[in-house]
């Protein structure tokens, strides 16, 4: 997941506009349109995953389809030499659609797993802490290595990068399938209810859930903000900081803290609850975006410091949002409202929308300011309005978007409505490894 989310989000817009000669507006549309397909596909896959879980007692069948993602991944960056401009955009967009469909086959059942486990409120956070740490390691490996491998900006460099990292996609996918099986065997599997729902009913039930709706809208704007940050970073380092090699450095500064602060966020969760922790993380990211407004005048060292803080906030954004999703699902299932796969399908469709809207919004800002695209080996002097758009689109715009995310997140009330779940578990089962009275089986220490 770290590879697929990071590299296209970080490099694809830059690859289209600076190597393939695709105009900025068309490049943004090339990233957006495949994600619009996801809005329809993910809820369908969520409901299909529920049906498979009822029939087989697990969701691993769809997971295995995700192992083919490496094929679409490699093709997406291996654009034939004769294609530039519109034809290159069509090639990349077609491969991106295929890749997103295969990724969805993996992502939907994978993210449903914590909702399937017979575990409680804080143990769901522990599950997602491990997920967040390893996801961030994937983000770090991809975010540092990929820009270094394509530093020349040549087509061949992008193709070699994709081929080298494809092995990581396959290996991590195989490990994930095995890990999901072992985790569900250990903790127990909660099969969806016997009564099947139509996809339309599932989506309606999820949207009527007030807490899920608030969490969903907040995460839509959070995801839009973070993926705008990734897409804009190469432009910021090249045109504002005037040193493209800083792309890998800033990605490292952003992601290294995210790999180590997870336990601190877990302590925040146990002390204040996930809702307050998420609001703190969103506020930190908003403040960091505004702190980068001075651009090159801020200095490299101060810029690195700000990005480190934003990376620590990013870890909280991931951990809390994703660990709150199974809390909402558990509350909905207790009411008989919907099944886990249905909620996850709507969630991942929203996530896919954020990953596309962020780069698209930034591309639209560049296009409106007159940014000029180029092909490999050529450079173009950008106008002052384009350079200002580069800076403001990387700083002020993410701050506004994260402010909207904060607004929606404050409407989430599940932690307040069930304040008892914000306290650490006091059942003896939490230390014995035996099932608790409510049927939840704690994880091993």
Automatic annotation (TrEMBL):
Q: Does the keyword Membrane apply?
A: yes
Entry keyword annotation includes Transmembrane: yes
Tell me which SUPFAM superfamilies the record gives: MFS general substrate transporter
One Pfam short name? MFS_2
Q: Quote the InterPro entries the UniProt record gives.
A: MFS_2, MFS_trans_sf
The record's listing under Gene3D superfamilies reads:
MFS general substrate transporter like domains
Q: Name one GO biological process term.
A: carbohydrate transport
**Domain of life of the organism in this record?**
Bacteria
Q: Where is the composition biased (Polar residues)?
A: 424-434
Q: Where is this region: Disordered?
A: 422-445
* GO terms, molecular function: symporter activity
Q: What is this protein called?
A: MFS transporter
């Amino acid at each position: 997941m770290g590879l697929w989310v990071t590299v296209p989000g970080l490099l694809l817009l830059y690859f289209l506009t600076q190597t393939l000669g695709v105009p900025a507006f068309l490049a943004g549309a090339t990233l957006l349109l495949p994600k619009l397909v996801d809005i329809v596909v993910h809820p369908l896959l969520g409901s299909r995953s529920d049906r498979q879980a009822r029939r087989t007692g697990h969701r691993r069948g769809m997971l295995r389809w995700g192992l083919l993602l490496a094929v679409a991944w490699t093709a997406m960056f291996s654009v034939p030499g004769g294609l530039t401009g519109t034809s290159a955009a069509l090639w990349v967009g077609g491969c991106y659609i295929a890749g997103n469909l295969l990724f969805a086959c993996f992502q939907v059942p994978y993210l449903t797993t914590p909702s399937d486990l017979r575990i409680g409120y804080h143990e769901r956070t522990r599950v997602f802490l491990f997920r967040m740490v390893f996801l961030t390691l994937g983000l770090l490996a991809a975010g540092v290595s990929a820009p270094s491998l394509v530093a020349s900006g040549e087509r061949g460099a992008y193709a070699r990068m994709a081929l080298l990292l494809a092995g990581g996609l396959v290996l991590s996918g195989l490990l994930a399938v095995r890990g999901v099986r072992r985790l569900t065997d250990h903790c127990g599997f909660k099969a969806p209810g016997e009564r099947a729902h139509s996809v339309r009913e599932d989506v309606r039930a999820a949207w009527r859930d007030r807490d899920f709706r608030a969490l969903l809208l907040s995460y839509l704007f959070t995801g839009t903000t973070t993926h705008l940050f990734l897409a804009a970073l190469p432009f910021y380092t090249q045109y504002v900081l005037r040193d493209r090699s800083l792309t890998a450095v800033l990605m490292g500064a952003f992601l290294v803290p995210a790999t180590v602060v997870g336990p601190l966020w877990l302590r925040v969760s146990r002390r204040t609850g996930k809702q307050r922790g998420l609001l703190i993380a969103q506020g930190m990211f908003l403040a960091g975006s505004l702190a980068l407004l001075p651009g090159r005048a801020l200095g490299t060292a101060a810029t690195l410091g700000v990005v480190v803080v934003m990376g620590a906030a990013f870890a909280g954004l991931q951990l809390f949002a994703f660990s709150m999703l199974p809390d909402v699902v558990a509350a909905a299932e207790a009411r008989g409202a919907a099944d886990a796969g249905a909620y996850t399908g709507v969630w991942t469709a929203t996530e896919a929308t954020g990953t596309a809207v962020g780069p698209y919004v930034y591309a639209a800002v560049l296009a409106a300011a007159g940014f000029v695209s180029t092909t490999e080996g050529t450079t173009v002097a950008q106008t002052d309005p384009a350079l200002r758009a580069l800076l403001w689109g990387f700083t002020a715009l993410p701050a506004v978007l994260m402010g909207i995310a904060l607004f929606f997140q404050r409407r989430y009330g599940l932690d307040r409505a069930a304040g008892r779940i914000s306290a650490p578990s006091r059942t003896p089962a939490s230390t014995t490894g035996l099932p608790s009275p409510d049927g939840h089986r704690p994880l091993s220490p």
